[in-house]
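Most newcomers find our protein records easier to grasp once they have seen one. The structure tokens are whole numbers drawn from a learned vocabulary of backbone shapes. The record below serves as our worked example for the rest of this section.
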Amino acid sequence: MVKALNEIGFTFACFGNHEFDIPYPLLEKRLQEFKTTMLNSNIEFILPESEPLNKLCVPYATLKLPNGATIRFFGYLTEETQETLQIVNGNKPLPLNILPVLDKATKDIQQTLYGDDYDFSNFTTTSDPIADTDTNVKAGPHTPRVSQVVPDAPDAIVALTHQFMPFDRILCQNNYEELNLVLGGHEHDPFLEIVDGINILKSGSDSNYCGIVYMDFISKEKNLDGTYKEVQVKRIRYESSSDNLMIPPTTTIISLPHSPFTVIQHVQIANMSVLKPLLKPVPQIDELVSEGRRIIEKYGSQVLYELPDNNVLYSSKDIRTGPNKFAKFLCDCVKQCCSSDIVVLPAGKIRGNKEYVNRLITYIDVLSELPFPDNEIITLKVTGDLIERALQYSEEKHVSRGGYLQVDSDVVFTDSTRKHIKSLNHQLFDPAHEYVYTVPLTHLKGIDNNPVLIEIGKINDIDNIMKDDAPLLQHILVQYFSAHYDGGTSNTPSKPETTYNTSCSEEPPSTLGSGEVN
């Protein structure tokens, strides 16, 4: 991946939350190979194993344009990453400390323009580090700004962020006169919004879309008193074909009162499937892609399973936006191996973003769909009331997020709102009954912050359950596929050699889509 990124050529980058899924020495090696300025404005690497990373990053960078205009860039990672890492690492000290973005970014931006003595008391900059809804973060009042900026202040400020959209909105509201653009990540969906005059652009995931930003710096005339005359913009035109776009573009005029420039900013999101035929091939990148495909074919092309032929296109795309047939299928497989009444898989665990047109699942598909090493699965007895409440929270708070809960085919809801369960495992649902419940261990410990799953974890004293006592989701599925696939020569599944918790069923998952609301 680093080779491909280097061939594409980036000026700046910032950390995402999954950079820390790999060991720190390997991350250090990758950053050494990365020919890009790595912006790190809020992560402190504090233990010997991670301290070398400090030298491979910069807290900010300034880009000077040919006409003399300057742009200051910062890069911020959501502090919820630290919460997640702590859950995964248990009581082991973390080798990093992530400062809350709203606090650190607001101070960085204000101090960049106004100096070290600026008063931050009127800003609301702190929040629950794992909050993920609009109601959990509030902006401070719009504060009167000082008129004098420091001599070396940049003309414009751009923040690269990797946090949820509600926090980006608050960042704009807190810095409505100083911040000029947010280039964001973390969500897997594209966004383009103007908040208090500031564009927030997120281009989604998997290169399905790309963000395009024009920033034209137009010189102002200077008055006799040293102030600047405002630029009169009569006509603005930018190239943007409507069939390339999924979200309408925005064009804004930013006066930059402290600067000798006015900025005309045009922002759009382009559909890569439309743009691709118009792009000139890059032989070096094509060769890297071919090399990757050769490795996959050599080591991961073995077919493990053939999906049922029931006129359904199984796909792991858009898996966070609602019920998904492929996710149901995976839950069904786990359900039989664990002899569960219900299996719950958070959508963020499933990441392949693939359509299974030929219905074949290979070994590399399993690794692509489930790339994380912390996919331990635990089976517990849980009351129906808690099961239903956890799903209700998912529907209310986690649609389009990694915490959205996918369930097996035998969970039937009363209607499409999915707020009440009608039947579970072919039996009428009983809120007081204890069901055999299978779920990732990490989510009972707090990842994605579903309070009902956390409550289930506390009831079952989850902190005293060792990860080694819980099988990996990847292993369960590979075992299931190996037991139930015979190369397409027979319809008779075989018995797996390994079972989890109780015996693994000899029957493959039932055909999905029974006509019920599930």
In short: Residues 126-144, 489-518 have pLDDT under 50 and may be disordered.
